[in-house]
Amino acid sequence: ATATEEKDLVIIGGGVAGYVAAIKAGQEGLKVTCIEKRGALGGTCLNVGCIPSKSLLNNSHLYHTVLHDTKNRGIDVEGVKLNLANMMKAKETSVNSLTKGIEFLFKKNNVEYIKGTGAFADEHTVAVRLMDGSETSVRGKNILIATGSESTPFPGLTIDEKKVITSTGAIALEKVPKKMVVIGGGIIGLEMGSVWSRLGAEVTVVEFLGQIGGPGMDAEISKNIQKTLTKQGMKFMLNTKVVSGDDSAADSVKLEVEAAKGGKNQTLEADVILVAIGRRPYTANLNLEGIGLETDTRGRLVIDSEYRTKIPHIRCIGDCTFGPMLAHKAEEEAVAVVEFMTKNYGHVNYNAIPSVMYTHPEVAWVGQNEAELKEAGVKYKVGTFPFSANSRAKTNQDSDGMVKFLADAETDRILGVHIVGPNAGEMIAEGTLALEYGASTEDVGRTSHAHPTLAEAFKEAAMATYGKAIHY
Ligand code: FAD
Ligand code: NAD
To answer: Which residue from 82, 198, 450, 469 puts its CA 20 to 30 A from 280's CA?
Structure first.
């Protein structure tokens, strides 16, 4: 790229938000450049987030199953051993093939890919420090900020990604810790805590609130999954705040914790501490101030409903602005923002974005939970169905959990679907579609679902909402 060439769209950040927007823009015939500083496309999600964590979750689950859950299935196994180095290699193979796949899609869709760090030189120009140390700049009619997020640090603890780790260290430990304490019982804490607990670590999760699962998870579902994770060996300290930490010793870390509403202090000690107290938008070194753009008190770039900042040709999507920090939310926005640029319309239904926690069993939900409906004063009805009454779950000897529908008391329109159970993450797609199309629970309950499938639990929970389930 040279400073004289003007692109239709310049994107800063090659994460899910940035790379999807780049491909979409290429498909729409725009001249597009995507600048990414980490040396690989796919951002947090592909390199250190969704994908590597799911590889470890899947393979640690297999290991745990082979160790503890084969006898009653008629499979005798002996000499089972963990080869952590190879488990990490399997993870890296998946990550590498997917990031290379995006490079291929960039070429296919005529997207120019610049490896370097971008910063605003002026409202239409992005200066780039290339990875080889040299510099260039790109001009854009439109500029899209998609610089993502980073993990929130815990005051007083220094992240070294060995002893005090974020999720990035948690997907790359070289040996299984003896004791791991997780600060924060949100999605990262429970997913990564599960991985290391299955591989043999003694894991304690300290959570400030009275329930695990982070924002959005229904309280009844949260209690249900906590029970199952406890059975698997994880320990939980709820209503407990970590107040300070001491990481000065060579191979252990101490944490002072206290009951959230005040009370006796307690000291916890572990060889590894996972800090999982949330993520915050990342917009450092973009020179936002140089062009007069500001972030809100939580570090998010302020945008309007067409993703425009107050400089209309500079837009922003993904983790660095409003909304849930989820890859598929970023992906929806990426398509919509390009459509706003090229066609003047775009559509993201923020009320129908599913959430999935990939523990075993999985937890998945879409729409509102009971606490949110109560707070909004909405009259609703509830229908549930346990997997212990579902033939397929029983046959698979994997029947912890339930499906729960929340529907408008008067109209029966679905307001929320909450699932804890095997394959919940796949099943929630049906709930999301139902919500998107304004379905009633009766619409779902009168739809044929194949037998024997886990999805029958979904149908029967719907039936239980407007009438009665058959098998429970
Ligand atoms: P990012 O993916 O963070 O991408 C931003 C990119 O911009 C980065 O690659 C960064 O290097 C680059 N960048 C920043 N500044 C500059 C600059 N100045 N110049 C050039 N490049 C720059 N979400 C899910 O939906 N499902 C999951 O299962 C899931 N699992 C997760 C597991 C973990 C451990 C973590 C940490 C997150 C997970 N997430 C998951 C969240 C998901 O990763 C994010 O929501 C998603 O990556 C957001 O995409 P983004 O493009 O907005 O930001
Ligand atoms: P989170 O917001 O989900 O959970 C953080 C938890 O830490 C909260 O429950 C909070 O109450 C608790 N906490 C905060 N300070 C504390 C303290 N001092 N002591 C004890 N507890 C404390 O954040 P996360 O789990 O770090 O995840 C970050 C983001 O990444 C989320 O937005 C999440 O959506 C995304 N993510 C998604 C997936 C997925 O979709 N499967 C997986 C991983 C991450």
So the answer is: 198
Q: Which protein residue has the closest C-alpha to ligand 1 atom 36? A: 49
| pLDDT per residue as tens digits for the range 413-448 | 999 999 999 999 999 999 999 999 999 999 999 999
Check if the beta carbon of residue 220 is closer than 8 Å to that of residue 382. Answer: no
Amino acid at 447: T
Averaged confidence pLDDT in the chain: 97
pTM of the model: 0.98
Q: What pLDDT digit, counting tens, does each position of 201-216 carry?
A: 999 999 999 999 998 9
If you measure from the C-alpha of residue 148 to the centroid of ligand 1, how many angstroms do you get, rounded to a whole number? 5
Catalytic residue (choose from 68, 328, 451, 471): 451
Rounded to 10 degrees, the C-alpha dihedral 295/297/298/303 comes to: -40
Say if residue 312 is preceded by a cis peptide, omega within 30 of 0.
no
CA torsion 38-150-355-180 (nearest 10°) is 110
Q: Which value, in Å, is the radius of gyration of the alpha carbons in the chain?
A: 24
| Residue bearing the CA closest to ligand 2, atom 38 | 187
Percent helix, percent strand, percent coil in the chain, to nearest 5: 35, 25, 40
